[in-house]
Design a protein that fits this description.
Elements: E1 21-25, E2 30-33, E3 38-40, E4 45-46, E5 52-53
Antiparallel strand pairs: 1-2, 2-3, 3-4, 4-5
């Protein structure tokens, strides 16, 4: 799908999220990248082979509590 230079990272590389957005649907919360991955606003991903990457949100464990 990628026709620009330099080519975007392939789907099996660790930096696959650096691929360019080719379809943008902010009202639905997802983007299609030129390597075929669908990236959701919650950071989850659907890869072209149908496999799912769970959302990878940061976990904050050192939150201050009110006294």
């Amino acid at each position: 799908m990628c026709a620009h230079q330099p080519l975007c990272p392939p789907i099996d590389s660790t930096d696959r999220d650096a691929a360019h957005i080719v379809v943008f649907h902010p009202e639905q919360g997802w983007n299609l990248l030129c390597n075929g991955a669908i990236v959701f606003d919650d950071t989850g991903e659907l890869l072209p082979d149908g496999s799912v990457i769970a959302p990878h949100r940061p976990v904050f464990t050192d939150l201050a509590t009110a006294a």
